[in-house]
Amino acid sequence: MKRILLLNGPNLNRLGLREPHIYGSVTLNELELQLKTIASSKNIELVCYQSNHEGGLIDQIHEAEVKADGIIINPGAFTHYSYAIRDAIASIAKPVIEVHISNVHAREEFRHTSVIAPVTVGQIVGLGLYGYELALLALVEKLGEEEKDEQN
Ligand code: DQA
């Protein structure tokens, strides 16, 4: 069974409470349960981890090299300045998809830059929590394609 790691960065433990006009009223726990259900219907194990600490996220990314087949990450505000998370992603040979709940391009200027995006397969922005579901489906598709290439 393939395994996908879902990483959420700082303040995303506050989903449902935090600025609901931007991030909605669904909690992280509810989101994770919903995504796990979708993953298992695709025969994928989804492992979820949230941290407010850069190092915790980096450790998870390193471990994913051996423990997971791909990563979905919402790095929160680290998106905009964490070269350390970017380097961690660049250090592993696994596909990573970046997700943002809000449309970062329609918000403050500091949110317009992602230092993470260049080391990811792609980015999903501004589609609310649905973005996580889309990222999951895209990653499942990508892992299936990789498997086909390996067989040929
Ligand atoms: C966010 C956007 C970031 O700018 C912000 O710091 C977050 C959440 C999003 O999902 O829209 O914490 O990553």
UniProtKB/TrEMBL annotation:
The record marks R18 as: Transition state stabilizer. Its EC number is 4.2.1.10. Keywords: Amino-acid biosynthesis, Aromatic amino acid biosynthesis, Lyase. It holds the Pfam family DHquinase_II. GO terms for molecular function: 3-dehydroquinate dehydratase activity. Gene3D superfamilies: Dehydroquinase, class II. The active site is at Y23, H100. Catalyzes a trans-dehydration via an enolate intermediate. Belongs to the type-II 3-dehydroquinase family. Homododecamer. PANTHER family: CATABOLIC 3-DEHYDROQUINASE. NCBIfam families: aroQ, PRK05395.1-2, PRK05395.1-3, PRK05395.1-4. This is 3-dehydroquinate dehydratase. It comes from Bacillus suaedaesalsae.
